[in-house]
């Protein structure tokens, strides 16, 4: 009888408890090419970046292994909603996103400029927001920029999954402009060898979305440890570790 009871407990441990524990020991990070924060170009197997290093630092302190899930931005959001990934970085706060994502208390990035890029020699003609109605503007599908642009149904807007494709369309003059966050756009332009091909518009975007966060899916097993995740994230910001990681990447970025 005692042997049968022991066998039953053993089988329960192996087939029921163990798989749950294994899943809880993994942190699945959604990644998309957003350099220098996430450097994950399709042609490269090596994935790095500020966000990747910071999340790995948090995971290490929580005794978690990190696995990476490559996805376009909009699919990354959907994966967070259904819980097939655990963590998403560089997420702007929006009420619809807060329904399925837990946001760390402190923003990961602040004050990052939004720009419109046009072909060289054509950007200066765009002096006001109203001038944009004369052009076709490409943007990353699922991204948010500033309220007026995001909610404007009269603008001619072309969504695409990646900035690389949008910049190729712009260079081929199949669209007139691209909106995006300046630092990643400049990095991608440099990667593509298109330095000097584009210029900013005279019109400057308002910085209405100037904070982004690291988030955890509410459907993730990691949600039960979010307080710990959030605390470690705050410590990395306060002790300067995040700034140190950023500095290392931006030194490489500025030399490109």
The CATH architecture of the largest domain would be 3-Layer(aba) Sandwich
Distance between the amino and carboxyl termini: 71 Å
- What number of domains? 2
Q: Could you report the average pLDDT, rounded to the nearest whole number? A: 87
What would CATH call the class of the largest domain? Alpha Beta
Q: Tell me the helix content.
A: 25-40%
Q: Which strand order do you get reading across the main beta sheet?
A: 8-7-9-6-10
The description of the largest β-sheet is:
5 strands, mixed
Helix count, per DSSP? 9
Shape: globular
**Helix and strand sequence:** HEHEHEHEEEEHEHEHEEHH
Structural descriptors:
256 residues, 2 domains, D-Maltodextrin-Binding Protein, domain 2, five-stranded mixed beta sheet
Describe it for me?
This protein is an alpha/beta fold. It has two domains: 2-110 and 211-254, 3-Layer(aba) Sandwich (D-Maltodextrin-Binding Protein, domain 2), CATH 3.40.190; 114-200, Periplasmic binding protein-like II (D-Maltodextrin-Binding Protein, domain 2), CATH 3.40.190. The chain has nine helices and eleven strands. The protein has a five-stranded mixed β-sheet. Helix 2 crosses helix 8 (226-238). It is globular and about 55 Å long. Residues 5-24 have low confidence and may be disordered.
